[in-house]
Amino acid sequence: MKIAEVGNIIEFKDGLKGVVEKVNENSVIVDITIMDNFHDLEMEEKTVVNHKRYKILANNE
């Protein structure tokens, strides 16, 4: 299992995408405001995602 790093873009929970802001032992904190339809989702700006529950889409390199 590859663990995301700060700045990576990840996909989780059926298509939600976000930028990793902090990496914890078992999870990452993700900013989901990069999504075009963020305001339609009625969600908080940040969310916590377990390492087992996401896929890395883009590296921060």
Spatial extent as radius of gyration: 11 Å
Q: How many domains in all?
A: 1
Low-confidence stretches: none
Strand percentage lies at 35-45%
* Structure summary, number of beta strands: 5
Organism: Solibacillus isronensis B3W22
Pfam family, one: DUF2187
InterPro entries: DUF2187
Protein name: DUF2187 domain-containing protein
Describe this structure in words.
Pfam families: DUF2187 (PF09953). The protein has a five-stranded antiparallel sheet, with no helix packed on it. With 61 residues, it is mainly beta. Helix content is 7%, strand content 44%.
Concise synopsis of the structure shown:
This is DUF2187 domain-containing protein. The chain is mainly beta and 61 residues long.
Feature tags:
61 residues; 5-stranded antiparallel sheet; DUF2187; DUF2187 domain-containing protein
Topology:
Blueprint: E1 9-12, E2 16-23, E3 27-31, H1 38-41, E4 46-50, E5 54-58
Antiparallel strand pairs: 1-2, 1-5, 2-3, 3-4
